[in-house]
Amino acid sequence: MTYGYGISCQLSTQRIIQFTLLVSKSFILSMQPKESMSTSGDFYSPTEITKEQLLRVHTPKYLKSLKWSANVAGIAEVPALILMPNFTVQSGYLRPMRYQTAGSILAGKLALEYGWAINLGGGFHHCCSYKGGGFCPYADITLLILRLFELESVRVKQAMIIDLDAHQGNGHERDFKNVDSVYILDMYNASIYPKDNEAKPSIRCGVELRHMTEDAYYLGQLNRCLMQAVSEFKPDVVIFNAGTDILKGDPLGNLAITADGVIERDLMVFSTFRALGIPVVMLLSGGYMKSSKRVIVDSIVNLRRQGWLRAN
């Protein structure tokens, strides 16, 4: 069965359910034990987001639609979910995704406190208030930003989304259409899902990449966009959607960025905004190869070595 990403999807629920843990002031200790002297205080676990909190962004009609397994199967792109009772879909798929969504919101709070935070999950950038898709059942980026606007209104009046997943972030782009207080920078492969022309006007600085784009062009365009964004907008917080589906060989991204290119990308984003004293929230978003795990760890280790993962 073919879904929005345009592939015959054989992904299992295990592949798209990631355990959500929040890291702040440190990095992934369990994967790099020799590199860290971390303590348990460096790691945070969110509580499950409530229906009332989800309703701050999502329509009642959309949340009700998730009670039908066929609808969730389309969003998750896992056909087998159609055959499962909804209570199994809720506990085995949607509940873990609600924890990841809560992790993104908690990351925003911690980033204001420490200067940065990383949610080991989240980045559901295809979901908007009334529609899910592309493995994204909840609009965690929108929820995160609105939470900061409402509960941290003195400190956070403007937010910037740096979306560097291989796919267009059409969910948050639909949610923040004509919202001047949110600046969106989006670099994505224009030839793949979602090709959402209606969402594009929300992008303030955009780069439409071609298949098999390599490091030199990619990093050059990112540098140009970062400089443009900093000159045009003064954010109080940056949401960095750091998908690793840009890696060469990723079956869904169709780009050709090396592991070193991803590490340099992450360094460019953190160094640009942390040097200005602007908190950064990093979300892992897409990445569909086993090698993505190693690249993420190496990138976070590099950020720490470079001094960008320190408390304010």
UniProtKB/TrEMBL annotation:
GO molecular function: histone deacetylase activity, hydrolytic mechanism
UniProt-listed Gene3D superfamilies: Histone deacetylase domain (3.40.800.20)
Reaction(s) catalysed (UniProt annotation): N(6)-acetyl-L-lysyl-[histone] + H2O = L-lysyl-[histone] + acetate
Domain of life: Eukaryota
Enzyme Commission (EC) number: 3.5.1.98
Oligomer status and interactors: Interacts with HDAC6.
Family per record: Belongs to the histone deacetylase family.
Name of the protein: Histone deacetylase 11
